[in-house]
Write a structure and sequence with these properties.
The structure is a homodimer of 359-residue chains.
Chain A (H helix, E strand, L loop, with lengths): L2 H7 L15 H21 L6 E4 L2 H13 L5 E6 L4 H9 L5 E6 L9 H7 L4 E5 L13 H10 L4 E4 L11 H4 L3 E5 L10 E5 L25 H39 L5 E3 L9 E5 L4 H7 L16 H8 L4 H4 L2 E5 L6 H17 L1
Chain lengths: 359, 359
Amino acid sequence: MAPSVREAMEPYWTEHFMLPGQTHPGASAVAEAVEQAREQVAKMVGCEGFEIVFTSGGTEANNLAVLGLAKRYGGGHIVVSALEHESVWQAVESLSPRTWRIDVAAVDSQGRVDPKTLESLLREETRMVCVQLASPVLGARQPIREIADLCHSHGIPLHCDATQAFGKIPVDIRTLRADTLALSAHKMYGPKGCGALYVRRGFSLAPVLYGESREMGLRPGSENVPAWVGFGAAAKLVDRCVTDAMARMHELRDRLQDRLLSQISPAPRVLCQRADSLPNTLVMELEREICRIARRARGVVFSMPRSLLPADEGTRSLRALGIGEAELRRCCSFSLGWTTSQEQIDTAADLFAEAYDHG
Amino acid sequence: MAPSVREAMEPYWTEHFMLPGQTHPGASAVAEAVEQAREQVAKMVGCEGFEIVFTSGGTEANNLAVLGLAKRYGGGHIVVSALEHESVWQAVESLSPRTWRIDVAAVDSQGRVDPKTLESLLREETRMVCVQLASPVLGARQPIREIADLCHSHGIPLHCDATQAFGKIPVDIRTLRADTLALSAHKMYGPKGCGALYVRRGFSLAPVLYGESREMGLRPGSENVPAWVGFGAAAKLVDRCVTDAMARMHELRDRLQDRLLSQISPAPRVLCQRADSLPNTLVMELEREICRIARRARGVVFSMPRSLLPADEGTRSLRALGIGEAELRRCCSFSLGWTTSQEQIDTAADLFAEAYDHG
């Protein structure tokens, strides 16, 4: 969490402890802080404040988008990309198979959903398409604008899980044109336990949780004031810094890639390497099983497919590239952040290469 | 939020930023902190750690209990008390009227659910009974143990919303014997955006939100580590202080009552005054409309029925006592906390009495 986020949250733990809806004068200051935070998040997204619904995280935001739209219909057809996060994937899978049919949009060898292929899956009864903006596993970015335009030309709404993109690349909903967009605060230096769903003006969703009417009637429960204020501060920070941070992460990611390619023999195969990939993600297939390297290189945090059955997001994403079961065990993904230093990159490459030699 | 809670949360914002499930060694410390917090909450509740499911608040906990149980059945019959919080009430109301029938258990003039009356509502197809432990509006406490025993004698599970009771009275699930019990951290000096559901060992619920499997498979999403650690610290505090705090709040509540009765003429009618009521709640019916007093006594925080249509929890609770529409506008409820001082009580009584005279 960024220091400025922490600082922004401070007064809302004890001093300003009230809730926005209370009648005491002290509650007005809290209500104002919450609305300012909403405006800050809206500015980052490129939308209006009333289009932002605060949630307890990206998972709840994705659930609200998927289940909240599904509740409007008795059944129908949904298309999801093969790379979706568990919270989209499982929410879609939870829908009754008696009334809902699901199609999975495949990706190419670079992890990209082809809009034309996706279009061929659309039917008269398609109620929703879900495509993430960028994959945390592969770094692959999807052509959301193109997909949104073709969905809309068929009268179908698009939900876009953008939790992995904020803070890494500039995101503007006016360009993307998705109908709903999921955000997660802790993925962009904000607090844990906090997220939001952008809901396009006039777009109709049903709530998933019930209680006192809050958040435009879409999400009940007492407002998590400190977290929302922190999310606003993080959005302000991201708005200001994302372009510079992106350039720097890109440079360091390339450095890590160069180092690993030269230090590991035989050289790893770099996957999903496109100019528009997330600047902080590097995914590789090596010649050795990754779990043995992981045990030695414990100082380096990287992710690998953890569960082959049932498949998790990592496993599903790699399989979607056409990677077989044996190669799957030799793949891993590195993620960089705003505070990653050149020194850390060099150390990580050395530690990883050393672990590889002994793996 | 209590200072010790804030202090306990501190290291988990930046220093220990990892998530419990990550493979890095730094994640183990975080996993341990989360499990310690779970044990602290469990100790307060009187249960085992694995019976505690962390949520984003009391609202989500109530939704998980009601909707998570309803999902196990295609339909049936549910009994709820007339005093339930919106998150129980609306969750029950959200169930399809084609397959679910709802009965409301009335309360007596003291706001108490009579177990015998409740029993008369139970049917062969009753799937669930929901009765809160204590009402934040009336202070009335329900005979949960008696209700649990009679529900169980019919093979029906009991959900108890106990969000308003922790920190005010000692609560022990071994005495209460409800099957699920909802908690809210910010109602007991813990952080906002955090709650829990006690789920009795072996009791089966379906999740309401979907994603990566967390919290015994009942609640997905990245762990809100700082909040959960804070909830644990608050539970420790409540465990140690609730008996003393209860005695003190009782004394101050009685003082407020005495003062208001002597300073306001004609003397207000005190509602739901029983020896076992919440020690921090005072509810009164006055001879004047409360909204006019509220406008003048803005330094005193008290609650009044805000919405007559649709009825909110306050309105429903007062109506359940048999209070008519005109009297409803003359009722208000005062709540005290651990930090309420005798001086504040005296000032509040003076301000309120003065506002009453001018109201």
